[in-house]
Amino acid sequence: MDSRAGEKLRALFSSAGGVHSIFGPKVADYVASRPDYPAALLAELQRRCPTPGRVVDVGAGTGLLTQGLLRVGYDVVAVEPNADMRRACDHLLGGLPTYRSFAGSAESIPLPDHSVQLVTAAQAFHWFDLERSRRECRRVLTADGLVALIWNERLATDPLQRALDAVLGRFGGEKWQLLGIQEQRAGVEQFFGAHPESLTWPHAHALDREGLRALVFSRSYIPARDTPAGADVTAAVDEVFDRFCDAGQNSVQVRYETILLIGRIA
């Protein structure tokens, strides 16, 4: 695997403002369609880093993982570079006493040295500058602190997911290729300085027609809805929905494997 995948990816998106900007127009679709994280994952994090404790959720986005961490008793600081995503996270969680959010990134975490027991990053590692984020995580973590990298990975063997991959590949081009699952985990050993422990769990959620559209349009590399290419995306997604829809539920079941890579930074 190419450990420079993140660098290549950031370069491709730089003309659109990079990670600080590209998800702004995607917020509503992100909220409407992205899956949460399974209870078994949160229980595993609690086992390794007992609550209460301070967690910084890097690349928190709209708060999908942050919400789960708060629910099981952590004091969570959400760090997110995109202002629109961060506002959505604040709207969801801002009333909770153990939640705070800041503008920042894995390379610039606005917290004091050695003040955090756990750093989490869900669906975000592929954006990291490996060496800068490695140094910054080491700086904010306590001596026994852990980093947890997390993905909801779409099941490549699932027929629905294979059909969605055809749509994503058709409209996502080179950016879709770089955001492939193998590339997302490139550089993990370089980041940790060792081979982290890996655990997996099955996960799934149901989406109606509009939810499946939103799932596809939430991808950073998919054209906007209100473009000619976006109309073509909608038609392609609707064909997939009609093919796999459970008529009784008027929905499709989107299956994932939740992956946790966890360890200390050497």
List its salient traits:
11 helices; seven-stranded mixed beta sheet; Rossmann fold; 7 strands; 266 residues; alpha/beta
Q: Find the CATH superfamily.
A: Vaccinia Virus protein VP39
The average pLDDT score comes to 90
Oligomer: single chain
The CATH class is identified as Alpha Beta
Strand content: 15-25%
Write the layout of secondary structure elements.
Layout (H helix, E strand, L loop, with lengths): L4 H9 L13 H7 L5 H10 L5 E5 L5 H8 L3 E5 L3 H11 L5 E4 L13 E7 L7 H11 E14 L4 H20 L2 H4 L3 H5 L4 E11 L1 H9 L10 H17 L7 E12 L3
Parallel strand pairs: 1-2, 1-4, 2-3, 4-5
Antiparallel strand pairs: 5-7, 6-7
Helix pairs in contact: 2-10, 7-11, 10-11
Could you describe the 3D structure shown?
There is one protein chain. The protein is an alpha/beta fold. The protein has a single domain (5-154, 175-203, 256-263), classed as Vaccinia Virus protein VP39 (Rossmann fold), CATH 3.40.50.150. The chain is 42% helix and 22% strand. It has helices at 5-13, 27-33, 39-48, 64-71, 83-93, 130-140, 159-178, 181-184, 188-192, 209-217, 228-244; strands at residues 54-58, 75-79, 99-102, 116-122, 141-154, 197-207, 252-263. Strands 3-2-1-4-5-7-6 form a seven-stranded mixed beta sheet. α4 (64-71) links the parallel β1 and β2 (75-79). α7 runs antiparallel to α11 (228-244) and α10 (209-217) packs across α11. The chain is globular. It starts with a helix and ends with a strand. 40% of the residues are buried. The mean pLDDT is 90.
